[in-house]
UniProtKB/TrEMBL annotation:
InterPro entries: Aminopeptidase_N-like_N (IPR045357), Aminopeptidase_N-like_N_sf (IPR042097), PepN_Ig-like_sf (IPR038438), Peptidase_M1 (IPR001930), Peptidase_M1_dom (IPR014782), Peptidase_M1_pepN (IPR012779), Peptidase_M1_pepN_C (IPR024601), Peptidase_M1_pepN_C_sf (IPR037144)
Official protein name in the record: Aminopeptidase N
EC numbers on record: 3.4.11.2
Keywords tagged on the record: Aminopeptidase, Hydrolase, Metal-binding, Metalloprotease, Protease, Zinc
Domain Aminopeptidase N-like N-terminal, first and last residues per copy: 20-183
Entry cofactors: Zn(2+)
Keyword Hydrolase assigned: yes
Pfam families from the UniProt entry: DUF3458, DUF3458_C, Peptidase_M1, Peptidase_M1_N
Domain of life of the source: Bacteria
The Peptidase M1 alanyl aminopeptidase Ig-like fold domain, residue ranges: 450-553
Amino acid sequence: ATLIRREDYCAPAFWIRTVDLTFDLDPAKTLVTSKMQLERNAAVAHGALRLHGEELNVLRVLINGESVSFRQEGHELIIDNVPDADFALEIRNTCAPDKNTALSGLYTSGGSFFTQCEAEGFRRITYFLDRPDVMAIYTVLLRADKAKFPVLLSNGNLLDSGDLDNGRHFAKWHDPFPKPSYLFALVAGDLVAREQRVRTRAGKDHLLQVFVRRGDLEKTEHAMNSLIASIVWDEARFGLPLDLERFMVVGVSDFNMGAMENKGLNIFNTSALLASPATATDADFARIESIVAHEYFHNWTGNRVTCRDWFQLSLKEGLTVFRDQEFSMDMAGGASARAVCRIQDVRALRASQFPEDSGAMAHPVRPDTFVEINNFYTPTVYEKGSEVVRMYQTLVGRAGFEKGLKLYFERHDGQAVTCDDFAAAIAAANPGSALSTRLDNFKRWYSQAGTPRVQARGVYDAAAQTYTLTLKQHNPATPGQEHKLPQVIPVALGLLSAEGQALPLQLQGEDQAAGLERVIVLDEAEQSFVFTNLASQPVPSLLRGFSAPVVLDDGLSDADLLVLLQHDADAFNRWEASQRLALNRILAAVRSGSALQLDSAFIEAMRAVLRHPELDAAFKDLALTLPGEGYIAEQLEVVDPQAIHAAVEAARSQLAQALREDWIEAFEANQIQGGYTPDPVSSGKRALANLALSMLVLDAARSGDTVWPGRAYQRFKDAGNMTERLGALSALVNAHAELAEPALARFHELFKDDALVIDKWFALQGRTPELDGKSFARVKQLTQHPDFTLKNPNRARSLISSLCMFNPAAFHRADAAGYVFWAEQVLALDAINPQIASRLARAMDRWTTLAQPYRSAALEAIRRVAAKPDLSSDVREVIDRALE
Ligand code: HT7
Ligand code: ZN
């Protein structure tokens, strides 16, 4: 395996200006004819033409119509004698879509053809300069059996279509926009489409189509509505219009990720596309809206302006995640619903990116090296990358950010560029701003891995009526980066009186207070900020809205946190206070090794949240949900997953018992009459009702009460939508109630023909909190279930990843059986689909922090995987990094 370095970037020796592709589609052996127009890159020294190609069978190579000699070395096809002048290159090759279980390149799924070319899948279709800085104009002719593949799609506009001999037909497509090969796509199959015509602000008409398998059409309404909302939003917020006459979206059930932004032909995992109230939860509806938006937004941030090389991946991914997060917030509506979105995003960041940043695979937002680029589609590149973009906006303001983005497109439309180009455009559009004056320092967010720690301590001087806030930052060492330099950390803050009143913020040297909230910028290792005119000691509310992706140690007491929980104007920090209060108690129990006993101050604070007449249900649900076990583990130097699980279970069961009457009240008060809509208010109510029900069923397991398990079972049977049905089923299963078994059997029987719902059935069992080894045993047994297969990524993830990545107490077993299971599954998956295997391999990223006996057992399992000689480069890189 070769280590690729960012600093070794060289421009390509040749440009490919146009490509004419002809596909004679056959599942067993597809014939690909590629006619390209090439020219030498004058800026690069003369040399051979080296094309990428993998798993291909080359039939002929012609230059200007004449056969030429070529060599094949590894994954390259090399032509030594190439004319200096522009020339035509024709290559004919075959590939085998039916055998392509890696789902990269051209493959079949459910009898139809699909492609996935990002990052390096195009080279598994034909020989090419498969790198994002080579942008060409594509014309694509598809030929296939008409009865089996009545729909033939590719990027851009349909030029022609018609019948051929032998029951075959053709379609010819042309994409007028130059694009890198990773944005190429084709689809051929027996599909049907929901269609909608829209007119954009410029008065242009566009055809929107969502293609799915017959029978799934009624599940595409939400995706279509989400697409229309995305088009409207991008024009209104950033002035970015739809630039194609036709925009197509296609669903496929075998897919490695959520979706793919191919120009004009987005391809979606059906899990990120199909929804009906009966089969999808509120969370599914929200996820679909956000992924449809994300892929659509890529049309500008990724497709019109793309990445020069894969190290710049966050240029498009961080920016596009930021855009989809902003979209979801704008769609959610009022301040409270926006805060709920923000809390959910931060919770996800902390659950996945923070552990990554302190584990074996830690890497900067713009990595410096990789072996396998597929391993770098990570929470760091995506979610931390989005936080970096959010900080630009915080530092230059919303209007300044919009100006910056406009300049970025003016400068770079049609180009393949770098994160530096993006930073330069935002800064140039905002001269003299808090960003432009510190740009070099700010860019350390791209180059330094690790989550900075910020310590904040305040000293109140009663005589001077000042409050001196001292902030210190420190970024711990990460693999390959021992010493870090200070980063630019925008800290949004407010000060509250002990009674909870917001205080005016006036810094020493200022004539007057500048409102009740402001952003101060920490850009040195240590800085102090003196606030004046304060009549009493304030309670600081720092890092409001999570204004930077850091770990904050503010040293606040329980009393301070209770003030924030009750009164902070910033809903994010109110939620943060609830989590901190819970976390402090759980950590104290785990650290001391004693049984957790919740105190009445905490219980009453939680009761007050639950009973609060003005707080939204969605917020209450988030505040009353305890921190995840993975996030708790992150706070500890030595991690005992069983001790953490025991403390969390104790906290849940005590909250369930102590607030029983309030849970009943919350359950009853949050019932929704009438039809289902996935709007934020209704989904918030359903979330709180589901939480309440789970607490009541949990408490029943303790008390022996049969009423609430019975009610849960009834609700499970009668539910009119999947959110309530799955909520009731989860309540029974997670509490290990007796009624869980009949409910699981009934659920399977009801939905046995709906793969996405059966994925939920597997996932629920994969994530069931451990009790006496039953959950682990259940997962092992389920691998033998007739519906289980490792070949479908959704199914593999639903069971195996649920256990290994999201169920720590069932996975980390003293007898090491969880790790043995992990090793077996990684190896089995690697032979089928290296990308999915390598994601599962990452379950061991944090093994060095485990307490004994887990640590030694984990190491043994990792070594067992490492010992396999023919591991994919994907898994090899992850395993090697774990062992470094
Ligand atoms: N840009 C897309 C990335 C993607 C992908 C990458 C590697 C292997 C398979 C893949 N499928 C999609 C997804 C996105 O960020 O929108
Ligand atoms: Zn993306």
